[in-house]
Amino acid sequence: MSNQHLSPLRVPLVSEPRSMGQLTEEICAPMERAPTWKWWVAFGIAVAVLATGAGIVAYQVGTGIGVWGLNKTIGWAFDITNFVFWVGIGHAGTLISAILFLFRQKWRTSINRAAEAMTLFAVMCAALFPLIHMGRPWLAFWVLPYPNTRGSLWVNFRSPLLWDVFAISTYFTVSAVFWYVGLIPDLATVRDRLKTGFRKAVFKVMSLGWTGSNRTWSRYETVYLLLAGLATPLVLSVHTIVSMDFATSVIPGWHTTIFPPYFVAGAVFSGFAMVLTLMIITRVVLGYEHLITLRHLENMTKVIIVTGGLVSLAYATEFFIAWYSGNPYERFAFMNRAFGPYAWAYWTMVTCNVVSPHLFWFKKIRTSPAAIFVLSLVINVGMWFERFVIIVTSLHRDYLPSSWSMYTPTMVEVGTFIGTFGLFFTLFLLFVRVLPIISIGEVKSVLGFARSTPAQAETPPSTRPVPVLDAPEAARNHPPLAIATRKDVPV
Amino acid sequence: MSAPVLIGYFDSEERVLEATRAVREAGHDLRDVYTPYAVHGLDAAMGLKPSRLTWVCFAAGAVGCTLAMSLQLYTSVVSWPLNVGGKPFNSFPAFIPVTFELTVLFAALGTVAAFLARAKLFPGNKRQALPRVTDDRFAIVIAPGQKPNALDAAEALLRDHGAVATDLREVAS
Predict the structure, then answer these.
(1) A126 near A241, Cβ under 8 Å?
(2) Residue A340 and residue A349: Cα distance in Å, rounded?
């Protein structure tokens, strides 16, 4: 291809030679063919889990949240743990799409679309928990500041829980808009491939009449840059505000100033682990190993090493300050975490989050998808336990020994949590079927990134006319692919 | 009233960049360039000015910031002052998180709305993309004008710069 950006240092982002037309075919293929039996099995399981979860939620809404394992001491446990867990998972999506975009990290192009979708679905799962926690979810609109019939009663803007309402809803809205704006050119690509029918009509509406005009592209790039710039502080603010739910209280173990950066680092840590889990499955199932390459996986594991290090540092700092501050309550809270009745949860957390990421220092592990997959699951488990430890161990033994208590989740709480996984995977599997999960336009723009080889340097730019995709020469150069003949199109 | 436009199709980013520069240098009326992805340097080649959407973003953010602050001050100080542990009614620092979120929300939605309006993108749009430009072709659209031989000259220029095909279309002017 003549539009190659050659350099002896530049490692190709797409590891197999592909023309633009082939890329379009390949990325659109999962949407245009019938789903495989594997997809149906996965979808069936996800929907079954979702349905079970929905049934459990219906039961607890009907009965009241007394069916939870909460008591007077621990009034806030499983649901907030899951809320923080899911919100945290969402963060990697925005990080990949916004922060890596601002840093001009071209490798993000293959994974940003799926990561952003993951963000949206994770935030949906997260938002369910405060909603259910209300007990009467149909009154959820009470959290919004609107002129109402109860006199001049307004919401309390000094409450971190209300900040959460604004933070999460803004985060969801901006992420959704960012995702959709990124999708518009690809929706047009899909629209132009479809001949007739219902799907064509839907894509026609959704692509808003995109023609690929450079006047539009120019503005589009500006908007994308602005949205990335807006989403970046938003990522930091959302988990900062979530951490303030705890940090503004006076409970030992919660009342710490390190919480905002600590929570943000943890969110990125867990989010990248979840992106890895999903991407490793996706690339194998859809055969995208040359688009979501080992290099992508390796880069993400490097982010995990860094954020894992930050999280470990935060754990150490908390412990140090608990001792150094000389506050006996604080000191007790941390000793109780490590050696109290929930020590098993604490040490699970330490093993998963502090020890396991260090395995990624080994190149062999960093480049083995199977090993990365296992470790990404381990980190997800560890990060769930981190939230559980922070919340439950701080609450169950606070200032007054007379009110000490233990907490065990009931089947209803566990079922609700598992149900959200059903929701998450149902949405993700549907997404894989109906939308291009790799940003077609953006990957095309990095297609020419390649390392220069002596052979390439000697060959002058090709002067041949159209590289017709079904020509025998093209077939020799490219691995066999189900390429539709383009005889209907004159150019 | 309709006028003919000449469309030249290209198969690579570099050729379309060169051809765009050449078309402008030759003094043809360059209508637009269509590409499957954002090509860097094409704005300069076409002579497009930087977008003013950044100002829209700033203004929308300022509106969001002002609205958020006003809402919180009105509800917490004027309409329903609530004494929480003796804290001041106008507890300014506590209002920062909501103000920040609404600033970002307004800035983001305002910018996207302005972009869609300016680029005339809306559901139900009847515009159609040129063949293959959303897939693997780049297209330059020129309005050759009324001068004799202008059409031939423009077509020769496009061909010289590696156009893989050319097409003449009547469009509503």
Answers:
(1) no
(2) 14
A290 DSSP assignment = T
Token pair of B32 as six digits = 């637009």
- Cβ separation B134–A445 shorter than 8 A: no
Sequence letter at residue B19: A
DSSP code of A213?
A: B
Cα angle for residues B126, B128, B132 (degrees, 5° grid): 165
The pLDDT tens digits for A449-474 are 766 655 444 444 434 333 333 333 43
- Torsion of the alpha carbons at A138, A139, A145 and A151, rounded to the nearest 10: 140
**Are the CB atoms for B106 and B67 separated by under 8 Å?**
yes
| Inter-chain CB proximity A222 and B37 less than 8 Å | no
Question: Where are the strands (E) in A132-257, listed by range?
Answer: none
The tens digit of pLDDT for each residue in B4-32 reads: 888 899 988 888 999 999 988 888 888 89
- Choose, out of B101, B106, B140, B166, the residue to mutate when testing the contact with A (most A CBs < 10 Å): B101
State how far the Cα of B162 lies from the Cα of B15, in Å rounded to an integer: 6
Q: How far is CA A471 from CA A54, A466, A483, A487, in A?
A: 53, 10, 11, 12
With a threshold of 0.95, does the pTM exceed it?
no
> The complex's ipTM?
0.93
Contact residues on chain B for A162, CB-CB shorter than 8 A: 98
